[in-house]
Amino acid sequence: MLFKSKIQRLGILIPLLGILLIACESKLEKQTGETATANPDASKLPVDIIIAQEQLLNHEEAVVGTMMSNREVSIVSELPQKITKVAFKDGTYVSQGAVLYTLNDGDIRSRLKQVGAELELAQLNKERMGNLLKTETVRQQEYDEAYMRFRSLEAQQDLLHVQLAKTVIRAPFSGKIGISKVYLGAYVTPGAELVMLQDQSNIKINFSVPEKYLPLIQIGDKVRFTSELSDQEHVAIISATEPGLNAQGRSLQVQAITNNDSGHFRAGLSAKVYFSVTSKGAKGILVPTEALAPGEKGYTVFVIKNGVAKPVDVTISNRTETDAVLTSGITKNDSIIVSNMLRLGDGTPVKVFMTK
């Protein structure tokens, strides 16, 4: 009787346990479904984006140039003579026409006196022969010889005056004089450098640009530059270019000029020149270089379309260490992904974490 009672109890408990198990499973499934519904973005890749904005481009390229004086000349003697005077102080400013050196002119002045005396006699002889020719006392040939003697002595006198002028060496233009290489009493020969004279009122900057930038180099355009003396930026104006390119480096030699009234710059200094490499009015979309992904035909960027990442082929017009300019492939207001690039693929679900 007792055994039968226990069996009846078990028959009641077993169905109850089954009902409880089913209820627990349903509750668990409901909770799981609610959790999944509550966190629909849990499986999406978080990314940072920028919104594409078209802007006027003003990118610059930096090259190294060399400063040169506006004018520079080596002062030389045209005569083989001794120096009788050095009329300047080394390293000072001299004006145009100022006397720099005087040479010994004693022998030239003596020859001038001699030729002057002979010229007076030749003139008297020429006039006498002219009067005699009128009376046919002398032949025409004798008069011609007297006349040519007079003209020859005139030419010798003019030559001696030119040589005398060369004994005084003057500054051909205003500028800063260098350190004299000869001193009083030194014997100089024609063509030997005596001192250097530089006009530093303006400074020229010579630099080279690659051939791909030739259409962007125009006479009158401004370039910025800095020197090794300081990081302060200055402006120079492109004044000239070489007619042809360097055949080895395929580059164009460019010259820019800047005012140097303050005397801040000197010939021989290096300059870092910045010039624009974008045409006037050019537009593009600026993106950080971390947004670029190498592709088969160049570079791609990922944009967000309908919640997933999509690769887009782009054209780059210019690139620096930090930025790149896109001129095709991207349109205004596109959402460009700039983070988690290594985990992206075509169709990867993404969610925006930050807009930069």
Characterization of this structure:
With 356 residues, this protein is of the alpha+beta class. Among the domains are: 46-57 and 282-355, conserved putative lor/sdh protein from methanococcus maripaludis s2 fold; 62-69 and 199-276, Efflux pump adaptor protein, beta barrel domain (Elongation Factor Tu (Ef-tu), domain 3, Beta Barrel), CATH 2.40.30; 108-164, Helix Hairpins. Helices cover 26% and strands 40% of the residues. The chain is built from three helices and 21 strands. The protein has helices at 2-38, 106-134, 140-166, and strands at 45-51, 54-56, 60-76, 81-86, 93-94, 99-103, 168-170, 175-177, 187-188, 193-210, 222-227, 230-241, 251-259, 270-276, 283-288, 293-295, 298-305, 308-319, 323-328, 335-337, 350-355. The protein is elongated, with a radius of gyration of 46 Å.
